[in-house]
Amino acid sequence: MRKTTACAVGIASALTGLAVGYPILAREKCLNWGATAAEVLRVMPGDDLRAAPDTISTRAVTVAASPEQIWPWLVQMGPGRGGAYTYDWIENLLGLDMHSADAILPQFQNLAADDVLPMGKSGPRMRVAILEPERALVLASEDGAWVWAFGLYPTAGGARLISRNRISLPSASLPTRLLYMLIMEPGSLLMERKMLLGIAERAARTSLDPHPAMVTKDPDEQSESQYSTAADGRTLDV
């Protein structure tokens, strides 16, 4: 009985310490990994789609490639498409069909505004809200609670790739919000850091090869689950 009580007290103390320490000591670095102060304050396409979110993260990486060379890796992202360039095994534990590509896939380069990308069978459906080639790609969940924007900003040696998430939890209770902050925010950094570095590595490799490898998936390998319906009624590979 004493051991059980001591264990419970220890867990409660650890959680209390985390709840107090994380917002003060680590949250800003977690939410703004890799981004400069100016980039955190920068107005990006899509900011107006979720004006007052509960959480904003702005994460960034320097890429030794031009926006033109980075863009193909961005537009082919998604379940059943080019993947997310992160930890596929974690994504697939959540029921996502993620297989990060190491080549530019021409069959997934025709992304257009209002196309819809389902994030797994039970996840949100993300609509392409803004698409400005080689500059900005903004996805917005159909319920309006999540806006995910990518921005490309040229530099002398390549480009800065910035990812911004604006997330609202309109009906969440206080305990749910606390758990989201303590678990989901660090978890999102783990995955998004890997994603940004994965894109940077692939795009840098592309910049060194004037004729990058392209792979076309065999149509016979595609199933009905790999298709989504765009807003205009056309079929979209996912």
Explain what this protein looks like in three dimensions.
The chain has about 240 residues and is an alpha+beta fold. The chain has helices at about 1-30, 35-40, 65-75, 90-95, 175-210, and strands at about 55-65, 115-120, 125-130, 135-140, 145-155, 160-165, 225-230, 235. It has a six-stranded antiparallel beta sheet, covered by helices on one side. Strands 7-8 form a two-stranded antiparallel ribbon. Strand 5 (about 145-155) and strand 6 form a beta hairpin. The longest helix is centred in the C-terminal third of the chain and has 35 residues, at about 175-210. Residues about 10-15 and about 215-235 have low confidence and may be disordered.
Helical percent range?
A: 25-40%
Radius of gyration: 19 Å
Number of helices: 5
Query: What class do helices, strands and sheet pairing give?
Result: alpha+beta
The count of strands amounts to 8
- The low-confidence parts are 8-15, 216-235
Q: What's the SSE pattern?
A: HHEHHEEEEEHEE
Shape from CA axes?
globular
**Beta-strand percentage?**
15-25%
Main beta-sheet annotation: 6 strands, antiparallel
Strand order of the largest sheet: 1-6-5-4-3-2
**What number is the mean pLDDT?**
83
Straight-line distance between termini: 54 Å
